[in-house]
């Protein structure tokens, strides 16, 4: 699902809201999740899962074009852990 599909689904489920209002709600949601993760925090959505960040150590990489070794600096990366209900929903047969 892409952002525009999400907006369409929300508009269909919320006929009383204007498209601009729905878009604003989605913007605020994603902005707040991004801010919290940038601060090193965690965002937990019960029944869905939790977003957090993890540290990646610095390492030696390889340039695929030249084969030269390059230093890749350490960094923080986003991480998602699905909740119990989400895992159950994904694994029902």
Secondary structural class: alpha+beta
Q: Under the CATH scheme, which architecture of the largest domain would be assigned?
A: Irregular
Helix content: 40-55%
Mean pLDDT across all residues, rounded?
Answer: 95
Categorize the overall geometry: elongated
How are the secondary structure elements laid out?
Layout (H helix, E strand, L loop, with lengths): L2 H11 L5 H20 L4 E3 L3 E8 L2 E4 L6 E4 L2 E8 L1 H7 L3
Antiparallel strand pairs: 1-2, 2-5, 3-4
Structural description of this entry:
By secondary structure, the protein is an alpha+beta fold. The protein has three helices and five strands. Strand 1 (43-45) and strand 2 (49-56) form a beta hairpin.
Keyword list:
93 residues; alpha+beta; HU Protein, Chain A; 2 domains; two-stranded antiparallel ribbon; 3 helices; 5 strands; 29% strand; elongated
Brief characterization of the structure:
With 93 residues, the chain is α+β, with helices and mostly antiparallel strands.
């Amino acid at each position: 699902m892409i952002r525009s599909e999400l907006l369409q689904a929300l508009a269909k489920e919320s006929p009383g809201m204007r498209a601009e209002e729905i878009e604003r709600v989605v913007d605020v949601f994603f902005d707040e999740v991004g801010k919290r993760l940038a601060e090193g925090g965690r965002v937990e959505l019960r029944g869905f899962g939790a977003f957090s960040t993890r540290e990646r150590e610095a390492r030696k990489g390889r340039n695929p074009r030249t084969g030269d070794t390059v230093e890749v600096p350490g960094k923080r990366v986003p991480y998602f852990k699905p909740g119990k209900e989400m895992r159950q929903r994904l694994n029902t047969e």
